[in-house]
Amino acid sequence: MDIVVIGIGQSLRGDDGAGPEAVRRWQEKFPATASRLRVETAELPGLGLLDLLSGARAAVIVDAVQTEAAAAGTVLRLALDEAAAFASGANSAHGWGAAETLALGRALDPSLAACRIRLVGIVGADFATGAGLSPEVRAALEAAAAAIEEEVKDRL
Amino acid sequence: MTKNIEVGALARVEGEGGLYIGLTDGNVTEVRVDIYEPPRFFEGFLIERFLQEVPDITARICGICPVAYQMSSVYALESILGIKVSPQVRLLRRLMYCGEYIESHALHIYLLQAPDLLGKESALELAAVAPEVVKDALRLKKIGNEILKAIGGRSVHPVNVCVGGFYRWPDVEPLRALLPDLEWGLQAARECVRWAKDLPYPDLEVDYEFVALHHPEEYGVIEGEVWSSKGRKTPVTEFEKAYLETHVRHSNALHSHTVEGTPYLVGPMARLNLNHAQLHPQAKEALKESGVVLPLRNPYKSLIARAIELVHFYAEAIESIRAYRPEGPAHAALKLKAGEGAAATEAPRGLLYHRYAINKQGRIQRARIVPPTAQNLPRIEADLFAMAPKLVKMEHAEATLTAEHLVRSYDPCISCATHFLKLTIEHK
Q1: B156 interaction partners in chain A (CB closer than 8 Å)
Q2: Which of A48, B125, B378, B425 is the most exposed place for a label (fewest CB within 10 A)?
Q3: Chain A partners of B14 at a C-beta cutoff of 8 Å?
Q4: How would you label B97-117 residue by residue, b for 16+ Cβ within 10 Å and e otherwise?
Q5: Considering Cα of A119, then B103, then B332, then B45, what sign does the dihedral take?
Q6: CA Rg, chain A, in Å?
Q7: Which CATH class is domain A3-155?
Q8: Could you check whether the bond before residue B38 is cis, i.e. omega within 30 degrees of 0?
Q9: Cβ B134–A95 below 8 Å, yes or no?
Q10: Nearest to B124 among A91, A100, A109 (CB)
């Protein structure tokens, strides 16, 4: 269980909830792979993201992204250093977004620096308060689940 | 400095707010901490809820200090029902506060305020030059979270607290297993005080009225009287007669002041200045060793008060875990009756007051919550006024940073503070 899949996002901030939703969809579609890995979902982990990554040799982080560079519903597969270009749509308390937390953790912890982290990003349309995903993001969950599966299959 | 200071969104504070300092003819004439985070109407949500739902709803007001929001509500509701909890329940409740103070103070000291004092833009920049300091900070904080997880099932918004006690006794073993980490944390907290006493704090001395909960036999956190450094001693049931809340246009958080109309200060400096005699011997020793003279009156130095409290709560956590022996029922039975009751406890950021009225079915009829940051907002604005002669002599960028740092040194929790009781629109 040294590979972890982490879905991040708030279910009450519209498309910000895409990360955990995509992870749940992947678990349903690919139970054989999902049962062999550690799977976590977190609404707003802040610095707790470092605990979720603790002990992992490889990780796939699934998160909503906000960008003008791609249409809503686009599924992106990114290396960690590409993540800073994308900002999470929902503000987190004390400004500890996933990108800053990962940068801090990797600066401090050699084992985290050695952990291979990949990101599956789902471009969101609407991050306003309220439950529910936009139609574009809902339609993208299948593709996101397939992207997670491809990312983890390479590492099993 | 020749132009106004406008900070649209304050960084490294919890919640959403801005800062405005206006100049006329070179003098500061207007200071506003703008709170535009929307009001959250928690008091309204509670109406007609059964009393046992209240602690889990009020916990949601804050992700950093959920324990205080749970506890102020359970103590207020228990006072209506005449429940006196068992010594082991009380010990566990204080242990939860230990966890909450540890995680909240470690975060603020190292990751939110220290970058300001050391001239760094963020904790990330601090980590680049002092990785060991930030590593210790994360470990110190995590141990606090682990205490909450062992008692309440999870570290944020723990779920075990109920009116009358706990839903079930937490297991002894996971708590005992934390002792080696806590022993390390106690020494790290002592080191934190040594480091904190010599940081380059900006000069500012303010003649505050400090207000905190006081308990004669322990460091005031739950139960006791509301004491003020001006000599006022107020039973919690009289709190709203001595301390009043009003609405101001630029803030979605109400502003508090004393009955005389003056601002007052709650939080770590107020607690330390009023309650240092009740500190744990380890914290007293740390205070003595530091050479810090009380009362502290420099808001930037509230970091030192947090560091000394960090020692206190690490030491208390160790003793509480050693003394924890669950036996008998984990919670008292509820005998419902109608009534009204209030309680105050000390959240990491200061006094947190709750009052509820319930009907004979135990449903909430009225709720009133006065959070610490709302009490401190007028004080923050008054401090910025006090700083004004210095600010106007600085370059604009330096003045902005000094003012922002002052706000951050208060560790304001804006999300907690935003609440409206009633909005009246006057037609003239």
Answers
A1: 48
A2: B425
A3: 93-94
A4: bbbbbbbbbbbbbbbbbbbbb
A5: negative
A6: 14
A7: alpha beta
A8: no
A9: no
A10: A100
Helix-strand-coil split of chain B, %, nearest 5: 50, 20, 35
DSSP reduced 3-state for B265: strand
| Cα distance between residue B158 and residue B156, in whole Å | 6
Residue matched to tokens 């952990």: A115
d(CA B307, CA A54): 27
Residue in chain B closest to A129 (alpha carbons) equals B38
Smallest Cα distance from B107 to chain A, Å: 10
Q: How far apart are CA B10 and CA B195, in angstroms?
A: 26
Residue recorded with tokens 């801090």 = A104
Write the residue in B14, B128, B142 that is nearest to A94 by C-beta. Answer: B14
Q: Is B65 near chain A, with CB under 8 Å?
A: no
CB atoms within 10 A of CB A135: 11
Q: Report the C-alpha gap between B190 and B174 in whole angstroms.
A: 25
Q: How many CB atoms neighbour CB B308 within 10 A? A: 31
Nearest to A104 among B12, B64, B124 (CB): B124
CA distance A113 to A115: 6
Residue B167 or residue A43, greater confidence: B167
- What integer is the mean pLDDT of B353-362? 97
Which amino acid is residue A149, in one-letter code? Answer: E
From B344's Cα to the closest Cα of chain A, the distance in A is 25
- In the 3-class helix/strand/coil scheme, how is B142-181 assigned residue by residue? HHHHHHHHHHHCCCCCCCCEECCEECCCCCHHHHHCCHHH
**ipTM reported for the complex surpasses 0.95:** no
Question: What is the residue type of B122?
Answer: S
Assess contact for B374 and B254: CB atoms under 8 A. Answer: yes
Sign of torsion over alpha carbons B320, B74, B70, B240? negative
User: In B181-294, at which residue ranges do the beta strands (DSSP E only) sit?
Assistant: 211-214, 225-228, 233-234, 243-246, 255-258
Residue labelled with tokens 């678990």:
A27
B93 burial level (CB within 10 Å; 0-12, 13-18, 19+): buried
Could you read off the pLDDT of A93-124 as tens digits, one per residue? 445 677 778 888 888 888 888 999 999 999 99
pLDDT value at residue B347:
96
CB contact under 8 A, A93 and B155: no
Q: Which residues contact B263 (CB under 8 A, 6 or more apart)?
A: B209, B256, B257, B378, B379, B381, B382
Distance CA B55, CA B366 (A): 15
Q: What is the pLDDT, as a whole number, of residue A84?
A: 61
Cα→Cα distances B310→B32, B119, B417, Å: 31, 24, 24
Side-chain half-sphere exposure of B194, counting CA atoms within 13 A: 9
Nearest residue, CB atoms, B127 vs list A47, A93, A108: A108
Which positions 55-84 of A are in contact with B (Cβ < 8 Å)? none
Please give the model's pTM, rounded to 2 decimal places: 0.88
CA dist., res. A104 & res. A50, Å (int)? 9
